[in-house]
Amino acid sequence: MRTRAAFFQRVSASLMIPLTFLPFPAVLVALGTVLGLGPLEQAGLELLRDWVPLFFAMGIAVGFTQGDGMAVLSAAAGYLTMIAVAVGVAGDPALNVGALGGIAAGALCTWLYGRASRVRLPEFLALFSGKRMGPIAAALAGVGLGYFFGLIWPAFYAAIYGLGQWIYAAGGTGAFVYGGILRLLIPTGLHHILMQLVDYQLGAWTDPTTGQVVVGEYLRFLSGDPAAGRLLSGFFLTLGFGPLGAALAIAHEARPEQRRRVSGMMLSGALTAMVVGITEPVEFAFIFASPLLLALHVLLSAVASFLGYALDIHLGGYALPMMLINWHRQQNGWLLLPLGVLWTLLYYVTFRLIIRWRRPPILGQSGEAGEGGDGAVAGAPGAGSDPLQAQAAGILAALGGPSNIRSLTACMTRLRLELNTPDAVDAARLRELGATGVVRTGDAVQVVMGPRAGDIARAIEEEVARTAGGGGRGNPSPNRRGQDET
To answer: Which residue intervals of 277-335 are DSSP H helices?
Structure first.
């Protein structure tokens, strides 16, 4: 039976799927505003306001059905039916259920699809049997959801608006708490849930031009709300500059025989954080091995969020390119540049002092065999001449072999697995093979591999198939779900 932790890991991975699309409408809005191209700006705003919830619904279907096309169609059918009915029930053509509505529709319709696809109707209705029953069942569910949201949404909206008002009333305290909690949730991989609540549901603003109500801190910022973006600005320090300072400190304090390998890993991790806002490759180098460094990271992240709020900086996004893309709507954004230099130095000095003082068993400090040299994969079974396949073979062996894997999912930086025997995992060997962190929760295990996690997952699946085809004792293939979607 799958553990609750494994379920929520899959939910979190599914919620990451729409994030791969969101930069595109943000770019349209920026280009339309800067170049005076009204149609582009309007298209970007409409995508963000009206269609992002649909992407959340489809993301749930992708994440839970291995990308089954009919499941995705079912989620879309259910969501669109839900919105059409809810608008009629509420009598409000501008009704917007936001990301939570999309998630609710996606979850229910995906669950129904799994059951409806097994239904076998009489011969004269066979056209609607099996997977083709999914969209029909989802649309019927959409009717029920539409009535539900149409009736309760006014009150629910008022509650969300009240929550947003409380956050803003809390001022810097609310920003401080928000910034710290997100870093605390990083080890679980569930921080995206809280981020998406704030980005796509928190607060409300009425566009004076169109009369449309926009909810969510990030969506309101992109739509032109002058009060939005204040809770998000500090994350440019946490994601764009903090990891660089931490990575330099870890590399400079690494053992001489490990410095070359650690420097390469940390440089890649710092660039990943700065360019795409994915911080795990750097964070997982220290957060499990050093509670003191984790506590410092949480504190500095909370302070960064507080500073962005206290200095009245309004800028949305989670990576340095988004700073430039959204610069046309910034307020006091220039302050992030000197603060960024300060933040890099602050991380570098404090991390280096703590590492030198405590010598925690973080990346570059432990004396594990095989950590020297340039990080080549040695002794990996089934290595052949392909380095990626050699790495995958080694990781598969370190996970306990093909027979130990029940399911395999890859998100942006992690391999998410459900294992028959979690104790069979060789965490030290996984680190030798490039992992920067291994998280165990029951029979669910996450292996942080960086941005190539999807490529590695595919290579592992190929290795499992090769082993099975060659008469090995592994399973034909792990139950792979959505490896390329997040």
So the answer is: 280-283, 291-310, 320-325
Q: Phi first, then psi: give them for residue 408, nearest 5 degrees.
A: -140, 125
User: 100 CB contacts (<8 Å, ≥6 apart)?
Assistant: 197, 201
DSSP 160-215: HHHHHHHHHHHTHHHHHHHHHHHHHTGGGT-HHHHHHHHHHHS-EEE-TTT--EEE
**SS3 at position 353:** helix
Please give the residue that has the higher pLDDT: either 168 or 469: 168
d(CA 263, CA 252): 8
Whole-prediction pTM value? 0.60
The Cβ of residue 165 has, within 10 Å, a number of other Cβ atoms equal to 12
CA distance 388 to 228: 44
Pairing of strands 444-448, 437-441: antiparallel
Q: How far is Cα 411 from Cα 449, in angstroms, rounded to an integer?
A: 10
Tens digits of residue pLDDT in 81-93:
999 999 999 888 8
- Residue 239 DSSP code: I
The residues that are catalytic are 411
Mean pLDDT of 94-115: 84
Residues forming beta bridges with residue 145, ordered by sequence position: none
Residue with token string 């079974």: 381
What phi and psi values does residue 65 have, to the nearest 5 degrees? -130, 20
pLDDT at 51 exceeding the cut of 70 = yes
Nearest to 16 by CA among 169, 280, 185, 196: 196
